[in-house]
Fold this protein.
Amino acid sequence: MIDPGKLLEKVGVTQGQVLLDLGCGDGYIALAAAAGFVGPTGKVYAVDVDSQAIDAVNAQIKERGLQNIHATQADATKSIPVPEKSVDACIIASVLHGFVDNGEDDRVFDLLLPIIKNGGKIAIIEFKKHKALPGPPYDERLAPADVDAVMAKHGCKKVASFSAGLLHYTRVFITPA
Ligand SMILES: C[S@@+](CC[C@H](N)C(=O)[O-])C[C@H]1O[C@@H](n2cnc3c(N)ncnc32)[C@H](O)[C@@H]1O
């Protein structure tokens, strides 16, 4: 499992920042960011195409009484309902390989880049490309060099890389100015 606290710390998410968790699933990263990292002056957007996932995140938001997180159902190939130039850091965890496999990454990045501040960060977390490890079909997995190539195509420059638990790795990129 990915430790969301370690991940957010290594990405460099700090108090007062605006974070987007794109393809948030059950929201364990977004919820950890809202509960401890961005603080009351920051904001977290959690977006997923799956309305049941967003219902589950909203239930957690209510249960924990969090005021600084908005969970929204949206298909990132069609819209990402976040204000322009507002996001300091975007987390895309175990999602990019699907966009690439479906030929959707160009559409997603056309919508994503305008909502990130100049010089903001995008952290890509992906499954390690080892046949022995659980994850999506081997052919769909992205090796770190594949992630770098996708991100370079969208003008993003790698600034950090690290392991994220036994099954995943992380690459952090700066968006074009
Ligand atoms: C493997 S799960 C990862 C969930 C979460 N990020 C995590 O690390 O546990 C992939 C998620 O991406 C979401 N997703 C896939 N395509 C999407 C799209 N076009 N727009 C928004 N979310 C999408 C899925 O609904 C799913 O919740």
